[in-house]
Amino acid sequence: MSGHDSKYFSTTKKGEIPELKEELNSQYKDKRKDAVKKVIAAMTVGKDVSSLFTDVVNCMQTENLELKKLVYLYLINYAKSQPDLAILAVNTFVKDSQDPNPLIRALAVRTMGCIRVDKITEYLCDPLQRCLKDDDPYVRKTAAICVAKLYDINAELVEDRGFLEALKDLISDNNPMVVANAVAALAEIQESSARPIFEITSHTLTKLLTALNECTEWGQVFILDSLSRYKATDARDAENIVERVTPRLQHANCAVVLSAVKIILLQMELITSTDVVRNLCKKMAPPLVTLLSAEPEIQYVALRNINLIVQKRPTILAHEIKVFFCKYNDPIYVKMEKLEIMIKLASDRNIDQVLLEFKEYATEVDVDFVRKAVRAIGRCAIKLDRAAERCISVLLELIKIKVNYVVQEAIIVIKDIFRRYPNTYESIIATLCESLDNLDEPEAKASMIWIIGEYAERIDNADELLESFLESFPEEPALVQLQLLTATVKLFLKKPTEGPQQMIQAVLNNATVETDNPDLRDRAYIYWRLLSTDPEAAKDVVLAEKPVISDDSNQLDSSLLDELLANISTLSSVYHKPPEAFISRVKAAPRADDEEFADAGEAGYSESPSQGVDGASPSSSTGTSSNVPVKQPAAPAPIPDLLGDLMGLDNALVPVDEPTALSGPPLPVVLPSTTGQGLQISAQLVRRDGQIFYDISFENGTQSVLDGFMIQFNKNTFGLAAGGPLQVTPLQPGASARTLLPMVFSQNVSPGAPNSLLQVAVKNNQQPVWYFSDKGSLHVFFGEDGKMERTSFLEAWKSLPDDNEFSKEYPNSVINSIDATIENLAASNVFFIAKRKNANMDVLYLSAKIPRGIPFLIELTAAVGVPGAKCAVKTPNKEFVPLFFEAMEPLIK
Amino acid sequence: MAGAVSALFLLDIKGRVLVWRDFRGDVTAIQAERFFTKLLDKEGDAEAYSPVVYDDAGVTYMFIQHNNVFLLTASRQNCNAASILLFLHRVVDVFKHYFEELEEESLRDNFVVVYELLDEMMDFGYPQYTEAKILSEFIKTDAYKMEVSQRPPMAVTNAVSWRSEGIRYKKNEVFLDVVESVNILVNSNGQIVRSDVVGALKMRTYLSGMPECKLGLNDKVLLEAQGRATKGKAIDLDDIKFHQCVRLARFENDRTISFIPPDGSFDLMTYRLSTQVKPLIWVEAQVEKHSRSRIEFMVKARSQFKERSTATNVEIEVPVPSDATNPNIRTSMGSAAYAPERDAMVWKIKSFPGGKEYMCRAEFSLPSITAEEAVPEKKAPIRVKFEIPYFTVSGIQVRYLKIIEKSGYQALPWVRYITMAGEYELRLL
Questions:
Q1: What CATH number should be reported for the domain whose range is A782-891?
Q2: Nearest CA of chain A to the CA of B170: how many Å?
Q3: Quick one: how far is CA B339 from the chain centroid?
Q4: Is B148's CB within 8 Å of A65's CB?
């Protein structure tokens, strides 16, 4: 069944467009159809054929289904560029939606939903209403999806016309495919709305579980995925669901299997009977293993998910490690993931076999894979203390092969093994030293130098070895320089003889005078002072016993793990990141109360008098008569005074005044009392006087006194960390406390795409550690220094390439007064630069700046009193743009 | 939890868009093309990348390759990755059903049908319908066959979405092939590191009407549940996967395999058996490198199954260094040849009865000069291919296949068994 459509791609000598126009208006049906095909062919290869719009639309009224489909396809593509002409098609659409042939009815409503032109959308409502109640299930299933399309274009219209109710009715439809599509549509609408729209009750649950048995494989995936949001009421309810879902594990479609696994894992949390849980684990293992016989792309997704599953429930696959052994022909991305899982499943029982495998992989061709295999051996050594010796002997065998990158990788992991098992395996140092000359990678070099420094007393010629590195000190990368500096100090402290003394002087000189790396210089100064004032103290510091390390490099935080497991099979589980970390879509209707908080907070605080930011006198308490009591903010960042008291450095960060009871607008709840076993935490990032605070309040709903509150922040995009300890007095039952925690910017910046997520851990002496995530808004980071001069703004705007310009519409924002808006924005450190009028629109130019000196150049276009504002922004750091748009939304409301 | 893709692209081998379907208007073809061509440029080899890639603009791309075509989706939501990637494979199957082969040429030749199919297979980024056989009932390649009053086949929305009503055959027949692939991995110490058997019941049905089928296997769980003394061998299958036509809830209840089959060929079920299997064909190779000038192989192959069975089309691929020349090969059975394009020597034996051992000796010349810093040789394993008809490793047996249709016709079931090598690898010392 092969076609010959390629002939439509060929062009003629005569002007193409006029010729097509002529053919489109031909009186012969076949000629018209051929012409439309040619138009579509041209469209496919990217030629602009929008000028033929009227002629193509004229062919729309046809009995020929194929021709109709082609014209519809054309319309989807070009209606946006010709919105006025697109109206011409509306009549035919409406007529087609009542055609006796269900294929045409469905086609009409499906296509209308794809045309994202407001004028057309208005006319879509009536046909859609009819089609949702159509006799033919094929039309109903298409209409169900169409509601989601309409919601994407105009959410209000969908709600006003009662389509949501109609969609909910379809969940009770007698046709399983209609149910499945209705579920998909509702789930998507729910995703973009903060109001509860699609809630699964026990009644809908029954309907969905019934439809699950009958609908197509894709429909089964929709239903299973939506079920993952259902919270079972009790263990019985959970068992019941699991019982209905378990047969899906036998489905040939891997996506159905993975989604079923997701539901079972989620419901297992509620099941109390250990027998049932054990039995379920046993049932899930074979289907998970079988996923590894699927296509490599599916295997990859499965492996990323299995990685999560074994972290949560290691028993499921404890005996299946062999299936993760790499096959020769596995694509490299599959091999890498298999390796990760092998490390996780390695145990004393199987380590011998695993080591044989790793050794085999370490001699393969792909360098990244080889390195990972070598590293895997080291991680097993750290994880399994009884196998450490065997791991090391494998590493030594590999070193003897003398393949350069294998040797270097091995040295890096051996350093970690030394740290894990101090004073155990030093006998191999001599072997390591043989490879000294071949090290050319910074990490390997640094590791080797660390080993020499750490064991300087046992290596006879440690000084010679270090000296050989010192010659090239100025050219080394920072990592190696830092390690060299520390190792030389260690050597000197261990063997304070003449040679090392000369070396240390050379190094300190190099590291303080000849370098412009502040880290290196600071560390060198600290050593210098220590050594010159109190060598014994230096020993205590530099040669102090190190905490033992463990292999947790790939363990996810438990709350994150649970979130990811609820997202099994989705992109979130592939990336091992929560969905909000990579999804740029902002919710269509943000919660109204959220905005109130933001606004009130901003307005309330901007009134308060400025506080001297004075890190030198941190102990002076706040005596100012501000209307809102505040703690003395700490210095924005620790800037140690090198000549001052080094040991006193720590104190500079700690505000020691008494915590003061704070009042103010209520904060958003970040840890509900149901999760916190009675403790409720509300918090929000705020900015006051150029300083960022974490405004946090605790409500003790437990029966006992809570005390000893401590807080910690996970690595985040801006490196935000607590600037001091949390000051909370012991909380009586029923009492609450609120405090402002000063925040500082540390170097501890999380890599990856920026997000405004703040992961926080809070603990007290009575309860377990609580983890929660708080989504801050970027606007608290807008600095006071964000104002730009007119000229520099212009220059900056011009110098940035067009690729760096982004724009966003805020359809719901109304600007009632330009001046009030400017004032409002200035209060949030978005500074006004200039304005101009363009027809009835006002165009404002503004600037803002976030930490690390990242500027935003803003052009805000709106008409006073008319809903809808457009915000265009240019910035050198594109990755912050989604966050920026999110932050602007409440500000221009 | 929900998510859909924004657009679906069919790209040529260089990453240029051939055909695309925009579902949500938030990812453009230019954007996708720019991203993907850049990706290909970086490595030149799509295999180096995981099939799920994130770009900085908040878009996730997922792709698979088939011949000289990439199928790519772009998404801004947290969509179901397994479902989407599997869907892309199904799209390939549908196109293959329509155009025999999916490649750049066939896409160009049929772009009208391609658009029509995409429209039916995915709506607003949600997978909808991928049963090629049923699709071809209402989307035809030859446009003139299309009648105006065409309706969507009932099957598209029916509970039985894989079979249309009103199918008629003069002679009602079912062919059932039980195919078992043996996967094995032997490490350089001669230990079996991993072995499993993946079986498939491949069915071809030529049956009229809506036949109800019931399949009986020598399934240990079922036979024990029925309290039957197991005559002969009953087998324990690790994991069974069924075609969507099989009623899963019924199987879960009483292990009955009941279904209304699709028309034509399909995989009724697949199963896996992870018990240790004795390698059916054992291969040993002794390699001797002589003074950098020549290399000698002595390969022994032994069949370790019963004498009444015979392996056919045996092919043993032994890796040789990529710079080897002047092959000199002798075999005690079959023929062997140097295949420089695969860096291997390939030894073929047409017929290899059970309990036999054959030999092959080979000698190659090597260049006497080698690079100063030798890159490690790619260490390929010995790979073996074979087929053994009328034999299964698992001992699976079809006890009965009952076919009941309301018109009451008699249908003939034909059953065949075959075992073949899957990923059958023995690592060299």
A1: 3.30.310.10
A2: 25
A3: 25
A4: yes
pLDDT score for B331: 94
Structure confidence at residue A118 as a pLDDT band (50, 70, 90): confident
ipTM: 0.89
Mean pLDDT of B246-269: 93
Higher model confidence: residue B300 or residue A606?
A: B300
Domain of B241, CATH number, reads 2.60.40.1170
Q: What is the pLDDT of residues B336-352, one digit of tens each?
A: 999 999 889 999 999 99
According to the 3-state scheme, what is the secondary structure of A197-218? Answer: CCCCCHHHHHHHHHHHCCCCHH
Give the chain B residue whose CA is nearest to the CA of A754.
B56
What are the boundaries of each domain within chain A? 5-291, 319-434, 439-553, 592-605+656-776, 782-891
What would the pLDDT profile of A842-879 be if each residue is shown by its tens digit? 888 888 888 777 888 888 888 887 788 888 888 888 88
Structure-token pair, residue B391: 């034999």
Q: What is the DSSP string of A571-604?
A: HHHHHTS-GGGT--PPPSB--HHHHHHHHHHHHH
Nearest by CB: B251 against A247, A331, A353: A247
A246, A289, A294 ranked by CB distance to B239: nearest: A289
Please check whether residues B248 and B372 belong to one and the same domain.
no
The structural domain count of chain B equals 3
DSSP labels, B84-134 = HHHHHHHHHHHHHHHHSS-SHHHHHHTHHHHHHHHHHHEETTEE----HHH
- CA neighbor of A564 nearest in space, from A777, A311, A774, A749: A311
Residues B201, B296, single domain; the answer is no
Would residue B161 count as lying in a domain?
A: no
**CATH for the stretch A592-605+656-776:** 2.60.40.1150
Are residues B11 and B56 part of one domain?
A: yes
In angstroms, what separates the C-alpha of B226 from chain A's closest C-alpha?
21
Region for residue A117 given its phi and psi (left: phi exceeds 0; alpha: psi -120 to 50; beta: otherwise): beta
Determine the average pLDDT of the residues in A9-34.
79
Residue B167 located in a structural domain: no
Whether B260 and B344 share a structural domain: no
The alpha carbon of residue A531 is apart from the nearest alpha carbon of chain B, in Å, by: 45
DSSP secondary structure string for all residues of B141-206: SSGGG--TT----GGGTSSSTT--S----SS-EEEEEEEEEEEEEE-TTS-EEEEEEEEEEEEEEE
As a whole number of angstroms, the distance between CA A258 and CA A301 comes to 10
For B95-99, what is the mean pLDDT?
92
Instruction: Give the CATH H-level superfamily of domain A5-291.
Output: Leucine-rich Repeat Variant (1.25.10.10)
Which of chain B's residues have a Cβ under 8 Å away from the Cβ of A585? 58, 76-77
For residues B327 and B237, membership in a common domain is answered with: no
Chain A residues closer than 8 Å to B77 by CB: 188, 191, 583, 585
Residue carrying the six token digits 């009958």: A214
Sort out which chain A residues have CB atoms less than 8 A from B78's CB and list them: 567, 570-572, 579, 582-583
In chain B, the N- to C-terminal Cα span, in Å, equals 49
Over 60: is that where the pLDDT of A798 sits?
Answer: yes
With a threshold of 0.80, does the pTM exceed it?
A: no
Q: Which domain holds residue B288?
A: 281-389
Show residues of chain B in contact with A246, CB under 8 Å. Answer: 252
pLDDT of residue A699: 86
Which of A134, A250, A317, A334 best probes binding to B when mutated, by most B CB atoms within 10 angstroms? A250
Q: How far is A801 from chain B (nearest CA, A)?
A: 16
Residues of B in contact with A360 (CB under 8 A): 187-188, 379, 427
Domain-terminating residue out of B156, B184, B206: B156
Give the residue-averaged pLDDT of A405-432: 90
Question: Which of A5, A84, A14 shows the shortest CA–CA distance to A50?
Answer: A84
